[in-house]
Amino acid sequence: MLITDFLEKNAKFYPDEVALVEINPENQMDKDTSWIEYSLIETAKADHYRREITWKEFDLKANRFANLLLTREVRKGDKVAILLMNCIEWLPIYFGVLKTGAVVVPMNYRYTADEIAYCADLADVKMLIFGPEFIDRVNACRDRLTDITAFFYVGETEDTPSYALNYANIIRYCSTDCPSIRNREDDDAAIYFSSGTTGFPKAILHRHSGLVASCRTEREHHRQEHDDVFLCIPPLYHTGAKMHWFGSLESASRAVILRGVSPEWIFQTVSRERCTIVWLLVPWAQDILDAIDRGELDPKDYHLEQWRLMHIGAQPVPPSLIKRWKKIFPNHDYDTNYGLSESLGPGCVHLGLGNEHKVGAIGIPGYGWEARIVNEDMTETKQGDVGELMVKGPGVMKCYYKNPEATLEVLRGDWLLTGDMARADEDGFIFLVDRKKDVIISGGENLYPVQIEDYLRANDKIKDVAVIGLPHERLGEMAAAIIELKEGCTATEEEINEFCSELPRYKRPRKIIFAPVPRNATGKIEKPKLREIYGGTRLVEAQITK
Q1: CA-to-CA distance for 505 and 458, rounded, in angstroms?
Q2: How far from the centroid of its chain's Cα atoms is residue 189's Cα?
Q3: Among the residues of 412-470, which ranges form H helices?
Q4: Within this chain, do residues 48 and 13 fall inside the same structural domain, yes or no?
Q5: pLDDT band of 197, cuts 50, 70, 90
Q6: What pLDDT, on a 0 to 100 scale, did the predictor assign at position 486?
Q7: For site-directed labelling of 494, which of 50, 374, 519, 522 has its Cα 20 to 30 A away?
Q8: Is 197 part of a structural domain of the chain?
Q9: Cβ count near 122 (within 10 Å)
Q10: pTM attached to this predicted model
Q11: Looking at the structure, do residues 169 and 231 belong to the same domain, yes or no?
Q12: pLDDT > 70: what percent of the chain?
């Protein structure tokens, strides 16, 4: 079975039922609009705030885009990239690519022009679909995108760049017939990007079989039924959001794509769309609880009784956060989801419903998965001892595309080394202890210290710099820069912050420390020493010792 088969089945059996809803809160109606009034607002006005498509429309749009690609000589195995913010067009485009036998390549919407060009070259991208937010970045690197034969623009006709075709205008003329392409479960399906501590992305190649397995794992874990409604907030380019939505795909249940994050917007959407399952990041859950504590948000003002499950992934979860959550929402089921792009996102390990007493752990192997904690020689550790977590299951990547050396570093037969250090308790629940690499996870986003360090070293006053993660109540971790100035130079924190203003906001250090940067005999920065000096004990370590 293929992932596209689920879509075609849903279009056949539930053609007129809503599959996807897009909510754009920046265009919302009056916040005091009642549910009944909201339902009766004329379509013309509501379209600026809310759009929806049925399962039949979803499938037909995917077919149209697939046939468009085929007329542009996309062939099986070609790479087609998606560079879009979350929107209702995203998933039909994704499935359209898969229906051609091509490999879909979602790109991080935070990528700079340089990163777009690098990743397009790395993945051998032949065609690129992009939205209005990316015109300037694509323009800036277009002269380096020489292997791309066609650009498709998802936006207003009058804004379409001269070198691109307008997506909406052109697909209306394409056939709605399903392409007669024979795909197999072992065929290549998708490339997702990941990075190590160097910050250079690696292209992770997955098969169709892995996508299908993600559907079944997600539905087994969170028990989606046909009447569930999933609220999707995180970006669809990431394996996390999409693979959680795959449970809705298999159960033919509705999903709501929320374009924006605030406690009020989340509650409004859950209330108005009758959402039953919500996946949050730690900062979002923290913001909701803080807004309730301040009296800015009152759950009684919303229809939340149908909300049955809140789950969190992408970063360590403070047990105190879940204790606070359960006091306010005692009837909610809760789950923690652990995964990585090399294992097709969440699900290889999860806490499991009903295991709130184990919050602080990432959990136990997921449905269809196995896990081990091993020493350097690949022997299993004793219970309670720390080692590297490795996982085995149907979502393990095929390889790092065009990078056999990196592939050999993490694959041991069918097993994947995660790079995370962990231990297991007497009940088999796994706790993360530290990351083997120095990636900082801040608000669910990976920050790569070397990238930030390299940027700061361009400052003429800086002799040396080290970036480490320090605990942060809301974000889990924050980036702190330890800066050693050149002799005779002075600088202020404000001056460094101003220097960093050209960095994307999420990459900017949140704490500046002027101090010597220690290095060992081989020239490596002694980051464990810096964490010890500046209180950089990882949040996950604090959880384990409680």
Answers
A1: 18
A2: 18
A3: 449-456
A4: yes
A5: very low
A6: 85
A7: 519
A8: yes
A9: 20
A10: 0.82
A11: yes
A12: 91
Task: Give the C-alpha separation, 255 to 227, whole Å.
Answer: 11
> How sure is the predictor about 25, in pLDDT bands with cuts at 50, 70 and 90?
confident
Arithmetic mean of pLDDT, 365-387: 94
> At 357, which amino acid appears?
H
Instruction: Give the count of beta carbons closer than 10 Å to the beta carbon of residue 144.
Output: 15
Dihedral sign from CA coordinates of 172, 176, 182, 185: positive
- Compute the mean pLDDT over every residue in the chain, rounded to the nearest whole number: 89
Q: How far apart are CA 274 and CA 143, in angstroms?
A: 47
- Judgement on whether residues 372 and 265 belong to the same structural domain of the protein: no
CA distance 406 to 482: 30
How far apart, in whole angstroms, are the C-alpha atoms of residue 141 and residue 357?
Answer: 50
Pairing relationship of beta strands 364-365 and 411-412 according to DSSP bridges: unpaired
Answer with the one of 435, 455, 473 that is the final residue of a domain: 435
Q: How far is CA 438 from CA 105, 259, 519, in A?
A: 26, 31, 15
Domain count, the chain: 3
pLDDT tens column, 112-170: 999 999 999 999 999 999 999 999 999 999 999 999 999 999 999 999 999 999 999 99
Please, what sign has the CA dihedral across residues 398, 400, 403, 404? negative
The three-state (H, E, C) secondary structure of 271-324, written as one string: HHHCCCEEEECHHHHHHHHHHHHCCCCCHHHCCCCCCCEEEEECCCCCHHHHHH
pLDDT at 80: 98
Q: Cα(117)–Cα(517) distance, rounded to whole angstroms?
A: 33
Residue 268: the pLDDT is 95
C-alpha to C-alpha distance for 155 and 5, rounded to whole angstroms? 29
The DSSP bridge partners found for residue 105 are 81
User: Which H or E run includes 91?
Assistant: helix 90-99
- Residue 449 covered by a domain: yes
Torsion of CA 371, 278, 341, 134, to 10 degrees: -170
Flag whether 241 is in a domain: yes
Give the SS3 label for residue 20: strand
